[in-house]
Design goal:
Oligomer: single chain
Order of helices and strands: HHHH
Largest sheet: none
Shape: rod-shaped
Length: about 120
């Protein structure tokens, strides 16, 4: 009877590679699967977030380019207006204005007026 008591509280240690007690027990397979699924979900969320951010940046870039194009067009219109006013007030010759306007005028318009840059 005393022998059974000893065995129940002190199991045999025939294993020469006995652990020092700091080893963690193996994680159950179900828990590992759950952790893996959660990790994959988190990675998917991060990818989706990065894709949304990239799309937002792309849209902002498009808006910025569009705004710059509008501003450049407005600058050209202002310059043309000033040049026309200068001709009206005889401040510049029409030939000089034509040369300055060439980048903004189409070849068709220039040919109709028989003026080429």
């Amino acid at each position: 009877m005393a022998h059974q008591f000893w065995i129940s509280y002190h199991p045999p240690t025939g294993n020469k590679h006995a652990s020092s007690g700091d080893e963690t027990p193996p994680i159950p397979e179900e828990e590992l699967e759950q952790q893996k699924l959660e990790h994959e979900k988190q990675l998917q969320k991060e990818k989706e977030c990065q894709a949304r951010e990239a799309e937002e940046i792309r849209q902002l870039d498009i808006k910025l380019l569009h705004q710059r194009a509008i501003e450049a067009e407005e600058d050209k219109k202002r310059e043309v207006t000033v040049l026309i006013q200068c001709v009206q007030y005889n401040m510049l010759s029409s030939e000089m204005v034509t040369r300055k306007l060439c980048p903004y005028m189409s070849i068709t318009f220039m040919r109709k007026n028989d003026k080429l840059c």
